[in-house]
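Tutorial handout. Part one gives the primary structure; part two gives the three-dimensional structure as tokens.
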Amino acid sequence: MGGIVFAAAMSHAPHITGYANHAGKEVKDRVYAGMTEIGDQLRQARPDVLVVVSSDHFHNLFVDRMPAFCVGVAQSYSGPIEKWINVDSFSIPGAEAFSRALVEQAYEIGFDPAFAENVILEHGVVVPLQFLAPEYDIPLVPILQNCMVPPLPTLSRCYGFGQFIRRAAQASDLRVAVVGTGGLSHSPGAPEAGDIDREFDLEFLAALASERPVQVVDWGSEKIDAAGFGAWEIRQWVTALGAANGAQAQTVYYESVAEWETGCGGVVFETSTS
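Part two.
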């Protein structure tokens, strides 16, 4: 019987690899060490499938087609589309059978994700992969969530979708890892870019580490908006929280990196009882 063997969430700022040395060496080293630690823990869990839940930054989806959720169902994926992020071109196998089963099972229980056979990988998936699966040897299921153009899926809907992924994993014979990517506070391209809401970030991380992590599902849009529109991407963290069945998280790292215009953090959720 399969199930969720690993669940985590981490920032995916393109500057992490694209402008790595713009940050101070000590800050960069701490972020890289934290991301590497999450990758080490993932590989120790020996997953058969890696589900990466990210936003899409207008490379695959735009306002003319913006589903709340879109599941990649390809045999393989390639990237990155952004050449400036300093990652060499690569391909990675897709977990096609599991991804198609996800879509079919979602329709049966009331979720209606879109699906795509052609998903070009961009920084939201590519940057985390450098630390999660640097050999590109774990079959991938990319799931794109709308964190770009309102109306956005609610936090409760994202949490429920994560719980659905968990049930689908349990119904399979596969060891499944789920990683949500994005955030934390940032406002890319805006006049306030580089203004990081450290207080928001630390409050969010503390909530995930508390005895009741699901409290974040009740956070209102005004609270999130105040941390910058890039904070909308905490939805991916909430989806991973759902996949971990609402379990507590351990904060592996956090740095507010003005040079990368992002509050960069990463957590690992307890999965022993998932």
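Part three, for discussion. The radius of gyration is 17 Å. Residues 162 and 242 are 4 Å apart (CA to CA).
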